[in-house]
Amino acid sequence: MEFLSDTVVLSRMQFALTACIHMLWPTLTTGVGIYLVIIEGLWLKTRNPEYYYHARFWAKLYALNFGVGVATGIPMEFQFGTNWAPFSEAVGNFFGSIIGFEASWAFMLEAAFLGIMLFGWERVNPAIHYLSTILVAIGANLSTVWILTASSWMQTPAGGEMVNGKFVVHDYFQVIANPFMAKSVLHMFLATLETSLFVVGGISAWYILKNRHPAFFSKSFKLALAAVIVIAPLQIYVGHLSAEQVYHYQPAKLAAMEAQWNTIPGGQSANWSLLALPNNQAEKNDWEIVIPNALGYILEFKEKLSEPVLGLKEWKPEDRPRLVGVVYYSFRTMVGIGFLLVGLMFGSVFYWLLGKLSQEKITQQRWLMRAWMFAAPLGFIAIDTGWIVRCVGRQPWTLYGQIRTVDSASHIPASNVLVSLTGFTVTYILLLIAYIYFGSRILRRGPNFDLPVPGIEVSKPAIDTAAGEFVPDERPVEAQQ
């Protein structure tokens, strides 16, 4: 229990806790925001009331995610001043600007138009409302851009130099467009989209299994599946490109990701470790299951490596990641989930082509609906483990190669950090419980088909067309009497 008296370790634990839990909600706001833009656009184009009711229903979940995301996100920024003050002082010339951009450009844009999106359906012109939905989605995704820009710069610092212990910016464009930035933003953007689509599909599958409005939710299920057909394989490819960047810019992290202790010379083939038990003290893997000659195909799409893959022994123990097992298995968890979701996508497409996802037959595909329900939370796990690889694999550096983590933490008593860590743990657990409670209420109530559809005059809110299915009565008022 020595870590309880280590300020640096406790500060890292607190940031990891708040970041991993907070990330659950921006993931959905960024992805579901784009989904709402598509759904509302379809309603404006087709005037099909089903799309209108979809927009109203999913907007409720968006609002809940936004609220909890704000509550969990604010403490993260304060930690830079409380637990990581030396780091903030050293890089504040750039880092403070980026965090400010995220708050003033992205968060304020999202917050300013969220009220119109939620409550302006019958109060503003449909075009104005749609514009508000678009701006909310842009704001949510701009947050991702700025946060990933800051994180990528910590991985591959560029555009300046350290002078007397402080980072001096010479070229803001180079700082922002650092080597990791573009692919990191794209990788995270696709991750939020894919996760959100599987959540939408999983919730829709739950309603279909319950036989609650199956025709209504089969539409959202198939729309999510159609998007996943493109997003899921593309995410695998972009993830590979990101790993290539690690190969070139952070070889110590790659060595930890692969539990590779000894250097593999260029010009020869190498085995790829599928599973292993890394031993930091002995600097070897106690056991491993390997795929012969596969590492070259994974890194370069060919058997023999053109460049050497450096092993962890090339660095002193204090200059390389210490938690090799954490990085190793986090990476495999992320990749494994990615391929699992692609497999589910292909299976679902096969059923679709066989005509088994029609409104008449979709309720019979119970195992497929259960599979989508099981897959709904997997994207969150993949994102969190991906960030663990990104941040734990960067150690022992906060700013890669320039500022060590041990020099970045505030000089405060460990007991202070332990108290705040305990408080944050309790608070975040309570917020998670509250989110589950209110989210469950939204799901139990389901979509509200009694809401009037703008532009459609009805005297009765709905007609019963099938068991568990209600759609608006669009007949002229005279025909409804």
From TrEMBL:
One Pfam family cited in the UniProt record for this chain: Cyt_bd_oxida_I
GO molecular function, a single term: heme binding
Segments crossing the lipid bilayer: 15-37, 57-74, 94-121, 128-148, 188-209, 221-238, 329-355, 367-389, 417-438
Family of this protein: Belongs to the cytochrome ubiquinol oxidase subunit 1 family.
Organism: Fischerella muscicola CCMEE 5323
Protein name from the UniProt record: Cytochrome ubiquinol oxidase subunit I
UniProt keyword annotations, A-Z: Cell membrane, Electron transport, Heme, Iron, Membrane, Metal-binding, Transmembrane, Transmembrane helix, Transport
Gene Ontology CC annotations of this record: cytochrome complex; plasma membrane
Subcellular location: Cell membrane
Gene Ontology terms: biological process: aerobic electron transport chain
Signal peptide: none
Lipid bilayer topology: Multi-pass membrane protein
Origin: domain of life: Bacteria
